[in-house]
Amino acid sequence: LQAAIDSRVPKLIIDNMGSPWIVDCIHLVSDQHIVFEEGVEVLAKKDAFKGGNDALFSAVLKRNITLTGYGAALRMRKADYTTAGYTKAEWRHALNIQSCDTIKVYGLTLADSGGDGIYLGVAKRGVPCSEIHIKDVVCDNNHRQGISVISAENLLIEDTIMRNTKGTAPQAGIDFEPNAANERLVNCVMKNCVSEGNAGGAYALYVVPLDGTSAPMSIRLENCTGSGGSYGLNLTTSNGGDGGSPRGTVEVVGCTFENTPGPGISVTNVPAERMSVRFADCTVAH
Fold first, then answer.
1. CB within 8 A of 107, min separation 6: which ones?
2. What is the pLDDT of residue 271?
């Protein structure tokens, strides 16, 4: 499979051979469309992924990649990674995307990772993931998050399910959590998404590292639901510091948060004079 990817053919079809493709760490290349046929399962090799940062599929400083896999799955061996033979870690992601541009992920199930189903991070300081489209994806039974968004600009997540996250905190369906003030959460939109049964919250927006020097954040959730986790939506920012408080907007429209032992909605340390937070037509229910 890696050799086929390295051929750099513009469109690569991964056939359903009737049994899983067994792989070690796979590294993606730019300018390629990979189509996983219906029924394809790509499975992490047993007794591999010993490194704490070993991911099933990785794209680092790449561009123009499309992964299409309706009825296909990328699956790791979550239970193995907490045994004595493995160094404790939370970064064995199913799909690791860092500082990439123009990435599309359609229809895949990303399951049983030792980290996140999808990780959108940074490989080069100041270079966010940009022009990212995730649609019709299922992130199931991952160790840390369904999806982590560290730094992204022009991110659209649609019709995606994030469920059954359990293993290590925060254990959210999705977590927007930059690591530094120079990272970005700009024009990040979620539509018609479901976050359910996660050990942590459904939607976490923990943006404390952002400050007044950061690009103004803009996040919108539209017609999304969260249920069965410890809380529905949690927004936490910094209310000051050397760089001042962060700027930006958060909009939550037509969303439902229900059946959580903790709050349906929690908003903490948000500076009213610099951050606009709007909830419209939302439902919070037990």
1. 68, 69, 70, 71, 72, 135, 136, 137
2. 85
